[in-house]
Structure formats: structure tokens, C-alpha cells
Amino acid sequence: MSETTPGAAAPSSNFIRQIIEEDVRTGKWRGRIATRFPPEPNGYLHLGHAKSICLNFGLARDYGGECHLRFDDTNPVKEEQEYVDSIIDAVRWLGFDWGDHLHFASDYFERFYGFAEHLIRRGKAYVDSLGAEEIRAYRGTLTEVGRDSPYRARGADESLDLFRRMRAGEFPDGAHVLRARIDMASPNLNLRDPVLYRIRRATHHRTGDAWCIYPMYDYAHCVSDAIERITHSICTLEFEDHRPLYDWVLDELADVLPWHSRQVEFARLNLTYTVLSKRKLIELVGSGAVEGWDDPRLPTLAGVRRRGFTPEAIRMFAERIGVAKADSWIEMGVLEDCLREDLNERAPRRIAVLDPLRLTIDNYPEGAVESCEAPNHPQHPERGTRPLPFSRELWIEREDFAETPPRGFFRLAPDAEVRLRYAYVVRCTGVEKDAAGRITTVHCRYDPDTRSGTPGAASRKVKGNIHWLSTAHAQSSELRLYDRLFRVPEAGAADSREALNPDSKRILTAFTEPALSQALPEERFQFERHGYFIADRSDGAPGRPVFNRAVSLRDSWSGRRG
Ligand code: ATP
Ligand code: MG
Fold first, then answer.
1. In 17, 79, 175, 510, which residue has its Cα 20 to 30 A from 443's Cα atom?
2. Is the CB of 276 within 6 Å of ligand 1?
3. Position 342 in a domain
4. Stretch 56-74: mean pLDDT, rounded?
């Protein structure tokens, strides 16, 4: 991956790094460091996953190890190839490389099955014939111990026979399950003989109809980790209570699968004004509240990519928020600041007029055009300039003129002077209005001795400096201004539909400078004073790009949080 993330500092330490450093010091894994990112292909990845991706791949990179991309594809009912493809795309876009280590839990189905038979033979698992409802009822509660299933006493031979016939398809869905034989009185409900396998006639996106029994996550996950000789199996806090089961399975399989990965939990990312849950995202997409998985308002990686976020900004964000053991909320502004920091340095400057008002320079020769030089980046003269055609008729922003200027207004007003950036100083001489009293044209006179870059420009001080475009040369472009998807910060807790921000997307037609017609899909720019924009990768056509605003130049929300 790129070593040149702007603003990236040396990774700061955290409790996971301390565990790994201690393991390296004691030689626990004999020098091996292997992590994995294990998505279930049942939805698109979101910014929460990005935290986990950056963590897992970042640790492998920093400690000379490997990080596997493993699809946890053990539930055929919810999983699809489309999701697999989108996940591969997103991880690669974020800048990470799994080398030879692209794995699928479904590739281990035969081995999972063999290990399950091993557990049965050792008396550690049995086939139960209670229904799902009964199993739940027998399981007990936090305050009440569980009861043994009447089938718990089944011998290994009988269970083995039934399990083989389950695989062979002799029984309908739900007729039997395979359960671990652990402890129905355990205070940890996950240890009350958890189900390891169930019958489910469903076509799997990779194994087709080869199987009609599928392993449960708690069984498949730890076994996959051990098969791949993962050293640190990093997951989110909700799996803390599952760790004893993770360890139990690997302990019981130690003689046939002699590898015991260590599960380490960290706090998931919660981000204000959005939701980071595949289930809630599926609802938003399915209900039509947004326009697909890559809607630029969504926190999916496909969405933030289209919105204009850079992989560098997301990696900087992951580094900045760190990892901790306690859940917390991160302000959306933190992520946006990372993007501003990255793009401020990288994005070429361009001009767009969003709310145009005509400006006529009465003493400028009609039909004349001259070329002004506008720098591509104010701090990087080596990045050159582009020509901006200047003429008698210009567009300026309506808000840059005030007929009765408030105190401290340094832009254009009757009889006031302002610099047209990269061009001349003009003085306002009057306005024209339509029948409704709305200003249609502002009239000015320019001072030919004040052209930017000439000695006269330096001697002429004016406070205001506004941007403009020549009306004959500007092109009109579709701009999409996005805002937060939800109006409430802790959107995950609220009823999603109620909390949606009705103004999260605004489309307008703006004037843009000539150079922008050449923008390529996914090229990013700073539109001076308006924010960072990206040429949309899906909409628009060659020569007629459509621009999405990724973020404004300043955070307009930070004061709004109650
Ligand atoms: P969701 O809750 O959105 O459905 P999930 O945890 O079910 O997500 P998986 O595909 O199982 O989704 O996740 C793959 C990995 O990403 C897991 O290791 C999971 O812990 C991690 N992950 C998921 N959401 C977050 C989050 N918000 N912050 C950090 N890591 C996350
Ligand atoms: Mg999950």
C-alpha cells in the first residue's frame, strides 16, 4: 500500500499492539503474525468495516506478517456473489493487499465436517432432535440454568449415524441439529450446548447444492482461524462472551487441528449522523430512502468513494480514532476533517459559480477576451496554472453582492471596490433589477492597471476578493450537494425513517470553468470557497462531468449538536 499518506504519523500504540509486541518478544507464535478480515458476504462494507480492515491489515504490515481476506460464507440464505465482488473491490480500493490469502470458509466445508465427526466420536457433540423453539426453551435464561435435552444422552455411534444421514439429505430442514456437549448449567449461555450444524436446504453461491447442512458461525469461525494459522483473531466486543466457546472448540480439536488462535476484542466504530449496521443499511437501500448501495450519502465504502472520500483520508481516520476496549461515538466531523486535510494538500483548485449573478464591466471592450493565470494550488506554484478567460460579462455569486451591505461585508456593494480574483479590481457603479425588484445585473468599471501579477496589482489594496467566470466561456454542470443522512447524531438508536435529514441531497446547475469539462471520473477538486468535489464515476458523460460535493470547506455542523 501507499507509504505516503499525507498527515500520517507513526502508528500510535494500543492494547492490541502491546499484545502482539509481547508475543513477538516471548516468541509465542515463533515469529508468525497473521490476522484476517472476515466479512460475511451479506451486504456492502461500511466505515465500521474500514476500521477493522485498517486495523488487521495495518498490524500485518507493521509487524511483517500477513492478513487474510476471508469470506465467512456459511449462511447461504443471505449471501450473494454481488456482495463478494463489492467487498473485494472495497478492500482493494482502501489500499490493502491480501497477496495469496483470499479465502472462503466454504472451501473448508469438508474439513469442518470431518472435525465435527471427530467431536462426535470423542463424545463432545451429539445430534439433538428437539425443534428450534424447544431448544430455546430448554436453554434457560441468565437467571435460570438450562435443562438437558432428552437426546443429550445419545451415544456417539447413534449421533454419528444421524449426522451422516443429515449430510446425505435424509431429513427435512429443522429435523435435527448437531450440538456441542458442554454444560447446560453454564452461567455463559453460549456454552449451553450451542448448535454447531443445522440442516438448511439452500443453494450456496459457491458450493451450489453440494451441502444441505451448514455450520454455525461460532464453530466455523474459530476452525477457519486455526486452519489458516491465524495468530490474532481480532473482532468486535459483542464476541467477548463467545470467546470461551471459541477456545473450547479449538481445545477439543487440538489433536487434529493443533493451532489455537487468540481472539482479541475491540470496540466497534459508532459514527454520528449515520448508521453502521448492514441490516439498517439494507433497510435504507430496500425502502428507497437512498438510491442504491453506492448512494453518496451512505457510509458504505462504495458510497463514500462515490461521495469523494479518498482511501488516504479513511486510513488517516482509522489511525486517528485508534482502538479501544470501550464503546464510544466518534463525531462525523472527525472523518470529514481527515478528508479536508488530505484534499487541501492534493486537490487542484477550480472555480464554480453556484448561484450566478451577472456582472457587466462597462469600460471593458466588448468582444475582447484575455487570459488570466489561476494557480492550481496556492501553496504549490510548481503545480502550475491554468488559463481563465476574462471578458466584459461575468458570473459572480449572488451572495457576493449586497445592495445594503451589513457591517464587515468586504465583497461587492454600490460604490465599493473588490478584486476579481486573478484579474482586476472593479468598482460597482449600479444595478439593474427586474419587475419583481430582484437584481439581474451588477454594473462595474475596472481599473486596467490592477491586473493580478503586475506591479500595479500590488500597490492597490482592496479587502474583498471574489471569484467569477466569463459568461461566454463558463459551462453549466450538474452539482450535487450532499449533507448528513440523519438529523440526529445517534441515528442508530432512532427510528431511521423519522430521523432522516430531508435535505441530505440538493441538485443544482452551476457554472464551472472551462478546464473542468475535461475532468475524468473520480478526479477531485477544490471549488474555491465551496468545498471539495469529485467528478461522479457513474453519471455524466465525457466532456460533461457531474460533480458531487464530498465535503464543504468548513464544518457547519459542529455547533449544531445539542
Ligand atoms: P454489521 O453489524 O454491520 O452487520 P457484521 O459484524 O455483521 O456487521 P461482518 O461481515 O461479520 O459484519 O464483519 C466483518 C468484520 O468487521 C468483523 O470482524 C466485525 O467485527 C467487523 N466490524 C463490523 N462492524 C464494525 C464496526 N462498526 N466497527 C469495527 N469493526 C466492525
Ligand atoms: Mg457478523
1. 510
2. yes
3. no
4. 97
